[in-house]
Design brief:
GO terms for molecular function: catalytic activity. This is HIT domain-containing protein. It comes from Aquibacillus halophilus. The chain is of the alpha+beta class and 116 residues long. It has one domain: HIT family, subunit A (2-Layer Sandwich), CATH 3.30.428.10. The protein contains three helices and five strands. It has a five-stranded antiparallel beta sheet. The protein binds guanosine-5'-monophosphate and zinc ion.
Length: 116
């Protein structure tokens, strides 16, 4: 399993930093975002370390994006939002702050839910 020593999300995958798990399989790990833009805000990451969409091989990206519906359904069931945004930030000007590729799933609850 390739990982980067200094990467926060690699440490989360390895269990060195605690996280609230939403979903896990051999390829991906999903956990609650520490900042919770809205209730149930979740991140999905590949277990292997890749910086962003440009450095992620297509087969890894396929596994990662393939899991989005599974995690989306788990969130819908757990939190019963009325909508859901799926988002991937690449490079700092686009809002990326952790440089291990991740997909945000942001449940929506209507006007004033804190996002958008
Ligand atoms: P980005 O800004 O790179 O698209 O998203 C990184 C996300 O990681 C942010 O929403 C931020 O709240 C979240 N985050 C940063 N540090 C931690 C942490 O230690 N644990 C968890 N669960 N999320 C984190
Ligand atoms: Zn990493």
């Amino acid at each position: 399993m390739s990982h980067s020593e200094d990467c926060l999300f690699c440490k989360i995958v390895n269990g060195e930093i605690p996280s609230a798990k939403v979903y896990e399989d051999d390829y991906v790990y999903a956990f609650l975002d520490i900042s919770q833009v809205t209730k149930g805000h979740t991140l999905i990451i590949p277990k292997d370390h890749f910086k962003d969409i440009y450095e992620t091989p297509s087969d890894v990206a396929a596994q990662l994006f393939n899991r989005v519906p599974i995690v989306a359904k788990a969130i819908k069931e757990a939190y019963q939002p009325i909508g859901l945004n799926v988002l991937n930030n690449n490079e700092e000007p686009a809002g990326q702050s952790v440089f291990h590729i991740h997909i945000h799933l942001i449940p929506r609850y209507g006007k004033g839910d804190g996002f958008g």
